[in-house]
Specification:
Layout: E1 20-24, E2 29-32, E3 35-42, E4 47-50, E5 53-60, E6 65-68, E7 71-78, E8 83-86, E9 89-96, E10 101-114, E11 119-132, E12 137-150, E13 155-159, E14 166-170, E15 175-179, E16 185-190, E17 193-195, E18 202-206, E19 210-215, E20 220-225, E21 230-235
Parallel strand pairs: 1-3, 2-4, 3-5, 4-6, 5-7, 6-8, 7-9, 8-10, 9-10, 10-11, 11-12, 12-13, 12-14, 13-15, 14-20, 15-21, 16-20, 17-21
Antiparallel strand pairs: 16-19, 18-19
Length: 236
C-alpha cells in the first residue's frame, strides 16, 4: 500500500482594510491588494507581495521574496533566498543571509543587506543603505543619499542627480563612481590607486592614494574608502 502525502492550499478573499497573522511550515504566502497590519512567516516557501499598504512584516527561512507596488512600513527577511523589490515606497527594510537583492523604482528610506549575495538597483529616490559581506554592489540612476559597503566585491555606482551625501566603503575590491559635474562637493577619497581625470576647480590634497578637498567651493560630501582597491571617479 502506497501512502500519498496531501497538500493543501487556501485562497481567502477579505476586505481591503484587514489585519493578518499568517504562518506556514513550507508553502508560499501570497498577499495582494490589502491595507493594514500584516505579519506572516513561512519556514521554506516564497513570499509574493503586491499592492500592500500599512505595516508589513514578513519572514521566510529559505524562500525568495517578491515585492511590488507597495508602500508604508515594509520589513522583509529571508534566511537564504533572493529579494526582488519594485515600484514601492516608504520605510523599506530588506535583508537576506545568503541571496542577492534587486531594487528598482524605490522611493523612501531604504535598507538592503545580504551576508553573501550581490546588491543591484536602479532609479532610487530618498536614502539608500546597501551592504553585502562578500558580493558586488551595482547601483545606477540614483537620486538619493547613499551609504554602501562590501568586504570583498566590487562597487559600481552612478548618480543621476547629486542631492545628498554619498559614502562608500570597500575593504579590498574596486570602486567605480560616476557623479554629475559642475556640482559643489566635499571630496574625500582613499585607496590603493585613485583615478579621476582632471579635477576642475579643486582645492586640497591630491595624489595617487588620497584626495581630500573641495570641488567648486564644496558642498555635498562624497566619501570613498576602497582599502587596498582602486577608485575610478568620473564626472558626467
Amino acid at each position: 500500500m502506497t501512502n500519498k502525502a496531501l497538500n493543501f492550499s487556501f485562497r481567502i478573499y477579505v476586505p481591503k482594510n484587514v489585519t493578518t497573522d499568517l504562518a506556514t511550515s513550507g508553502g508560499n504566502i501570497e498577499l495582494t491588494g490589502i491595507s493594514g497590519n500584516q505579519e506572516f512567516n513561512t519556514s521554506g516557501g516564497n513570499l509574493i507581495l503586491k499592492s500592500l499598504e500599512g505595516k508589513i512584516k514578513g519572514t521566510t527561512s529559505g524562500g525568495n521574496i517578491s515585492l511590488r507596488d507597495s508602500k508604508d512600513e515594509l520589513n522583509l527577511t529571508t534566511s537564504g533566498g533572493n529579494i526582488d523589490a519594485d515600484n514601492s515606497s516608504g520605510n523599506i527594510n530588506l535583508s537576506t543571509s545568503g541571496g542577492s537583492i534587486k531594487l528598482h523604482g524605490l522611493k523612501g528610506n531604504i535598507k538592503a543587506s545580504t551576508s553573501g549575495g550581490n546588491v543591484s538597483g536602479e532609479i532610487i529616490e530618498g536614502d539608500l543603505s546597501a551592504h553585502t559581506s562578500g558580493g558586488n554592489i551595482s547601483l545606477h540612476e540614483l537620486n538619493c543619499g547613499l551609504t554602501a559597503g562590501t568586504s570583498g566585491g566590487n562597487i559600481d555606482v552612478s548618480v543621476q542627480n547629486l542631492v545628498k551625501n554619498i559614502s562608500i566603503n570597500n575593504s579590498a575590491g574596486n570602486v567605480n563612481l560616476k557623479i554629475p559635474k559642475n556640482k559643489g562637493i566635499d571630496l574625500k577619497l582613499s585607496g590603493g590607486k585613485i583615478s579621476t581625470g582632471t579635477l576642475e576647480n579643486f582645492k586640497g590634497t591630491n595624489n595617487k592614494e588620497q584626495i581630500d578637498g573641495t570641488v567648486s567651493g564644496g558642498g555635498i560630501a562624497i566619501t570613498v574608502d576602497a582599502g587596498g582597491g582602486k577608485i575610478n571617479l568620473e564626472f558626467n
